[in-house]
Design brief:
By secondary structure, this protein is of the alpha+beta class. Helix content is 53%, strand content 18%.
Amino acid sequence: MLKKVTLTNVHTGRHFTAIVDTISDDKAMVGAGRASNETAKVSDVTGLDERLQRATGKSSMDDRVALFSGLAKCFERNISAVKSFQLQASRVKSAATAGPLAKSATTFPRGKRSARRWKSIRTCLGPRSWP
């Protein structure tokens, strides 16, 4: 299910809108990159809008490059996997990519196997992104 997240900075009042493909509102806020100084309003995208977004909102090569280069920088700086996925979920532009990244960020602390998380990320990025 697609979720539309509108983030509002409490200090400046600026709005940022992101669309995330996930089930829960909590994961949608992680996928949108909600900071501590922002309020979030989550709404569902349904009907024709959802079908149109799914048809046109495919993961691009730019998302793949941003994801893997960002993860490499985070791991190089000894940032934990959970925080790395939270950061990268907010940086990708595709809703289909941000959703599984947000799900990964929430399942790592519960002890789920990382191989399963990578498999879900692999399917959302498509077969061409892996050797």
